[in-house]
Model the fold of this input.
Amino acid sequence: MPVIESAAKHMSQRVLLTSKEINIILHRLACQLLENHLDFTNTALIGIQPRGVYLAERLTKILQEEYKVKHIDLGFLDITFYRDDFGRGDKTLKANTTKINFLVEDRNVVFIDDVLYTGRSIRAALTAIQSFGRPSDIELLTLIDRRFSRHLPIQPNYRGRQVDAINEEKVKVMWEENDGKDSVYLVSK
Amino acid sequence: MSELSVNHLLGIKYLNKKDIELIFEIADHFKEVINRSIKKVPTLRDITIANIFFENSTRTKLSFELAEKRLSADVINFSASQSSVKKGETLIDTVNNILSMKVDMVVMRHPNPGAGIFLSKHVDAAIINAGDGAHEHPTQALLDSYSIREKLGEVAGKNVVIVGDILHSRVALSNIFALKLQGANVKVCGPKTLIPKHIPSLGVQVETDLRKALEWCDVANMLRVQNERMDISYFPSTREYTQQFGINKKLLNSLEKEIVIMHPGPINRGVEITSDVADSNQAIILEQVENGVAIRMAVIYLLASKIK
Done:
């Protein structure tokens, strides 16, 4: 795509995962979820807003269409009001929609997010989910796990790809439904 | 844009259309929050807010306090009747004393128009005007528009009539500003003595026949007759007022279309609206109260995020 190429010249970005690789990883992650949760009757998948939602929807689709899981409870959780950096940044944070139409009380919850970086979003999500009940356990699935950058003792249970990136670099996950193409870039400023 | 253009909420006239859209968007999220079983978020846990009320209030004060607590802010309440104001302390001194206890935001109601504006120039805190005399009551106007948007889908293009005591009403003035800003058509209706003569300069039409006004409108916002602000007689008797400007079920049913009835409260039942109207499906009075908490959460959240 011409847009990406011209952006690449300015910001120097490198492809970490192509759409084919992402597809393979998504199927592996789906199988790993299946292995641990079988028919998903006591499991709820929670996509973390905003970018975890695409991944959560994609995994749900694969599980239902290709692995014939009958029903999966899928919710979206917005963590804006639970962040620990309110008033510390320059800009006001806009919220996204939270949509959880089921109880998480005594269920197995899987948080799904695209990139795990400092771990602070997941910390906020752990607080936020308490408003919807007390899950029996919570797991974390992430497409990209940035090593050596954690501020908190949080690790994923399922990871797509581990990436070493310095703090000045940014990992950008693009999804076909939003950005026109599946791909993961490492962008250095 | 995800930031308000102002650092204080002193009146709707200082806001722009985008500000209102942003407040509504954030209020949508808070409305979802306050309908959860756990209705609280930890967002403002390091913010302290003082509610300073120099004039009586029930629902506005409760609504602000609830909004603040739902956001996990620390709240201190102050009402003038139990304070050193009675001993002759000035407004700035009172507020600065409160602020020296490290307060970040002040919600103030005051009988004098412009009190909030005055305060914002002299003290270092975000100010929210919770009603200043007959001037403005911005959060009420925001929750009114938000309730219209919720009920009818949008505010733009809707016909809204504000009925009653326009002269003494801060709710009327703030509502006129808010509705015009969002592209609604506004008429006011009431006894001529209670309609300010310069009101057409705000782009508002005057209608003295309630029936005609109701036939024209999609929404009727019925204001309370504010006996406490009336130093002289503006109409012959309450009974005559009710006959000319009160809504009852019979009148409502005789209209060709179903209109939405709003009231900022407190209701004088049997004066501006009868009980069967206030309790009917067409009235969204209790929805207004619920939306008031969400709107105030949004305003506090947006202003607090600008505090450095």
Summary: DSSP finds five helices and eight strands in chain A.
